[in-house]
Amino acid sequence: MSRRTRALAFLLLALLAATAAAMIADGYGASVRRGFGPLRPVVVLAAELPPGKPIGPVQIAEALAVRRVPERFVPPDALVDPAEALGLVAATVLPVGSYLQATQLSARRSGGDDTPALARDRRPVEIAVSGAGALLAAGPAPASAKVDVVVTSEPGGPGAGRTYVAAAGVPLLALRPEAEGAGGVAAATLGLTRRQALRLIAAESFARKLTVLPGA
Q: How far is residue 78 from each of residues 12, 68, 90, 93, 102, measured CA to CA in Å?
């Protein structure tokens, strides 16, 4: 048998082996689906979430991941989208690798602090804001304080940027100056709906500034 013939024979055997392996793997996958159900997305912990602290955009990006697992192993209250956890609070330490379940989260801080209760559709979300000097000078925000959040976008041309109210009359839960603190820059914890939270989080990345004004 010539060298070329032997090479062709080995290539043919390798192709046959690869085909057989693919058929076995496909058959195994089909067997798993029949036994454990179709694959479903589920949120898992890629890093530990500290209890008692609202889950913000950073925690969603760094601590939460989506995996696809057989339906049989997914808890009935498991989250399927990390954004569902925005603003919620872990009731206890959640270990890495575990499923994130709705029953492990609440809409209020733990520890019995003075944060007012929020409506069911609102969650505490912290954002960086400007123009908070007057509010900070007035002391801690009262439980009934409401503010408007105004977004000023970067100019798209020679003119000024667009300014508009992105969230009106939202509860102000806490307000503290940032480390650099100049010019009234502060971290505001607001009681936002999911839609408002996503809008303001997006605005933080593209807008020139976000300003809080006392609500009517």
A: 47, 12, 14, 16, 6
Residues of the chain with CATH 3.90.1210.10: 39-106
pLDDT tens profile 186-210: 788 888 888 888 888 888 777 778 8
Between CA 45 and CA 55 the distance in angstroms is 12
pLDDT tens column, 46-67: 988 877 778 877 788 888 889 8
What distance in Å separates the CA atoms of residue 62 and residue 79, rounded to the nearest whole number? 16
Model confidence over 82-108: pLDDT tens digits?
888 887 888 777 788 888 888 888 765
Task: State which amino acid sits at residue 186.
Answer: A
Instruction: Select from 3.40.1280.10, 3.90.226.10, 3.40.50.300, 3.90.1210.10 the CATH code of 39-106.
Output: 3.90.1210.10
Burial 70-97, CB ≥16 within 10 A → b, else e: eeeebeeebbeebebbbbbbbeeebeee
pTM: 0.49
Is 79:100 a contact under the CB 8 Å cutoff?
Answer: yes
Residues 53/57/60/63 CA torsion (nearest 10 deg): -70
Give the DSSP letter of residue 142.
P
